[in-house]
Design goal:
By secondary structure, the chain is of the alpha+beta class. The protein has two domains: 5-197, Roll (Pnp Oxidase, Chain A); 212-287, no CATH class. The protein contains eleven helices and twelve strands. The protein has helices spanning 10-20, 71-78, 92-98, 108-112, 176-179, 217-220, 227-234, 242-249, 252-259, 262-274, 278-287, and strands at 24-25, 27-32, 38-43, 46-50, 55-58, 81-86, 116-117, 126-127, 132-143, 152-163, 182-184, 190-192. The strands form three sheets. It has a seven-stranded antiparallel β-sheet. Strand 4 and strand 5 (55-58) form a beta hairpin. Residues 289-297 have low confidence and may be disordered. Bound molecules: flavin mononucleotide (FMN). Flavin mononucleotide (FMN) binds at residues 26, 39, 41-45, 59-61, 70-72, 96, 99-101, 184. Residues 26, 39, 41-45, 59-61, 70-72, 96, 99-101, 184 line the site of flavin mononucleotide (FMN). It comes from Neolewinella xylanilytica. Keywords: Flavoprotein, FMN. Pfam families: Flavin_Reduct. One of its GO terms (molecular function) is oxidoreductase activity, acting on the CH-NH group of donors, NAD or NADP as acceptor.
């Protein structure tokens, strides 16, 4: 199915975009208007876009019903400062409450029951319950359109970072598991970064992987191996040496799998991949090439 976004009603386009582009981190953005009145609202059209300088961007959308500006947008245009507070599981219900469209001037810190902690540099306070808060000055606001649904990029430069020390590991580094962050999905779904939902992938930056195209054809077109399996194998720098092939060929499970044919061997390699034994998996897959002993004897 292929769609032309211009032919979709705004509501459907919003539903499609926000379901497909997910999970999205959530910024609880605190701002003040020219009179110093505080506002707090969550935004999931949000991310980090630069490390040096440290730049966060979020996007208050013009209201679908009348194209009017949300209070947050009006505020950053009056006072170019914002605190951006990340959202973890313990504060998700209060964050949701803070998204209520209260009238301009209503302080959502109070409505949501959040603690407003005075910032060091900027006027808007930060959320005391948030594990990580950023004090930011607003470099620019970039309107992406005029009507309902149009985003406005608020380009925010981080000038102070506040961390809850309980979120650090023994090395003093932010701990992903302790943070317990939540993210926004489509419709009213959220997801939570629990230990069960986390997994690691070795970074390909350190080596120059041979790529999936560097793998022999019988591996690339395997009936068993998945795209993830091939991606992991392609991250290896080179094909194994004869010595490695010899070493795996004598393992009893390899001998048994080899006797079972190509797919049995690929299934065994897949088990090795699931255990993180990538080089061993590739060695096993290469045994099949000539069907004889890897030493060629
Ligand atoms: C988790 C979550 C994420 C949201 N993300 C956005 C967003 O990225 N952009 C937006 O315009 N509204 C977003 N909203 C809706 C706003 O929070 C809501 O319109 C809020 O009332 C705006 O407040 P304001 O008028 O005080 O700025 C989100 C709401 C929730 C609950």
């Amino acid at each position: 199915m292929t769609l032309d976004p211009a032919a979709l009603p705004t509501k459907d386009l919003y539903g499609l975009l926000s379901t497909a582009v997910a999970p999205r981190p959530i910024a609880c953005a605190a701002t003040v208007d020219g009179a110093g009145r505080v506002n707090l609202s969550p935004f999931s059209y949000f991310n980090v876009f630069s490390t040096v300088p440290p730049i966060l961007v979020f996007s208050p959308i013009r209201r679908g019903r009348d194209g009017s500006a949300k209070d947050t947008l009006a505020n950053v245009q009056e006072v170019a400062e914002v605190t951006i507070n990340v959202v973890n599981f313990d504060m998700v219900e209060q964050m949701s409450l803070a998204s209520t469209e209260y009238e301009k001037g209503v302080n959502e810190f109070e409505k949501a029951g959040f603690t407003a902690v005075a910032s060091e540099i900027v006027r808007p306070p930060r959320v005391g319950e948030s594990p990580v808060s950023f004090e930011c000055t607003v470099d620019q606001v970039v309107p992406l359109g005029e009507g309902g649904g149009a985003g406005n990029l608020v380009v925010a430069r981080v000038v102070r970072i506040h961390l809850d020390e309980a979120m650090l590991d023994e090395a003093g580094v932010l701990d992903t598991v302790k943070l317990d962050l939540v993210a926004r999905m489509g419709a009213s779904y959220y997801c939570r970064a629990t230990p069960a939902s986390l997994f690691e992938i070795p970074k390909p930056l350190r080596n120059m992987g041979m790529g999936v195209d560097g793998l022999p054809e019988h591996i690339r077109f395997s009936e068993v191996l998945t795209g993830n399996n091939l991606g992991r194998l392609g991250n290896l720098e080179r094909l194994p040496e004869a010595e490695q092939l010899r070493a795996v060929s004598s393992l009893s499970e390899v001998v048994a799998a080899r006797a079972g044919g190509r797919n049995a061997l690929h299934r065994l390699a897949q088990q090795y991949l699931e255990r993180g034994e990538t080089e061993k998996a590739l060695a096993v897959l290469l045994l099949e090439l000539d069907g004889s002993s890897p030493t060629g004897q």
